[in-house]
Every structure is written in structure tokens, then in C-alpha cells.
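G., the chain you wanted modeled:
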Amino acid sequence: MESLVIPVIILAVVGAAVALAARAFSRRQSSAREAGSVPPPDPVELARSAAAKLTEEQHRRLYALIAQGQAMAAIKLYYESTGEGLRSARDAVAALAAHPQPYRSVPAETAEVDTDDDAPQRFPYRYRAIASKGDVTREVSSNMLNDEIYGRIRTLARSGDTEAAANALTRHSDITLKQAREFIALLDD
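Predicted structure as C-alpha cells:
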């Protein structure tokens, strides 16, 4: 009988340890489920807040990297510029790529939105817009374009109003209407 006492004690200790581990695991799962019940942030709002954390130079460099398809370099730039975590930098760059944001030097609430497309503004930098489909690639480079204007042109093209998109592109660049139509045709999915 004495020979069974030690194995029974070991068995009881192992059983108690397994029960405690199972209980801790179930608590972690329930807290993870509760944390997952919070809806993910709106990607457009995430893009706006991410763009607000960048200086004008960082904003320009980040979008240049996104346009070149260098996602890892863009994430690294955002990570180093803002000091946020790697996962939040990844999410912010993905949101900025999916929902381009113009650089705003003043808060969005106090900025006056200029919707007048008839008088294009000249910016201190040249903006490059590239569209391609298959083997055909077109590029428009202009200092009258920025992310916001190009985003409106893309929205017009994707909504089916290709003529208005071509006219807006012609107004904000030095290309002909025919070249603008060719460019817009590449944007139309």
C-alpha cells in the first residue's frame, strides 16, 4: 500500500495542474472573444488619422513608396515616423493605400474645402499618376494634381462618368483630351 501513495500524490498534483491550466486557457479565450466583439476601426477614418500624424515630407515619401509598390518600406517609414507599433503601422499604411488622403497642414475641421475645379492650384511638387492594364501603361505628371484631386478623378472614372474624369484630368495637367481619355480608359475596371 505504501508503494501506491507516492504515485497517487503525483497523479493528484498533475491533475490539479491540468485543471488550473485548462481554467486559465478558457479565461484567455473568453477575454479574447470579448476583445474581438469590438468592431474594427473604419478604414477611411484610420487613413485620415494616420495621415494627420505625418509631416508633409513624410506624407510625400510614404505615398511615393506606396505608388512604387514598396509596402514594407512604407510600413517602416510610418513606423519610424510615428513611433506606433508595427501592427498599427501596417494597418495604417494599408488604410492609406486603400483610401488616399491629401496632406493637410491644418486640422480638417477648420480647413476650407476647395471644390472649385475650374481654377487649378499649382503645388510645389510634381504628382505622378500611373495607370496600366495589361501591357499598356500611361503616366501623367503634373504640379496641378495631388492625392485628393486624383482620387476624385478616379472616383469619376470608376462610377462611369469617364468624360468628366477626362475633362478634370485635362484641367489639372498639361495633356490633351485624347491622352486623358486613354489614361481614364486604363482606370475603368
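The chain has a mean pLDDT of 81.

Shout if anything looks off.
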